[in-house]
Design a protein that fits this description.
It contains 2 helices and no strands. The chain is mainly alpha-helical. It has one domain. The longest helix has 34 residues.
Length: 104
């Protein structure tokens, strides 16, 4: 249920109100979601995943193709941003799921 971004209890109601804003209550089972604040934990895990991958790929690209530096500035920031945006929501949903499991 965490990766599907659904309610930790019923698995049916949406977990998020916005892109990263956790809803106040589940629309289906009325679970109070305000107690499950994930804080900065998901962002740290995403940084630890995307950062080394992007660094390794940039170094590999530099050593194989030797592109000009401006090309690195054009290519890598959008790719890093896309990776972070793609992973942050599911990681936050899993963190909320784990928090709600351990707070029972």
């Amino acid at each position: 249920m965490g990766l599907r971004c659904k309610c930790p209890r019923c698995g049916e109601g949406p977990l998020f109100d916005g892109f990263l804003t956790i809803g106040k209550r589940c629309q289906k089972c009325n679970l109070d979601l305000s107690i499950a604040d994930s804080g900065d934990g998901p962002a740290v895990f995403v940084i630890f995943i995307v950062g080394p991958i992007a660094t390794e790929l940039a170094l590999l690209t530099e050593s194989i193709f030797t592109p000009p530096y401006w090309l690195h500035l054009v290519v890598w920031p959008p790719l890093i941003l896309a990776g972070v945006v793609a992973l942050l929501r599911p990681f936050k949903a899993v963190a909320v799921r784990l928090i709600s499991e351990f707070s029972r």
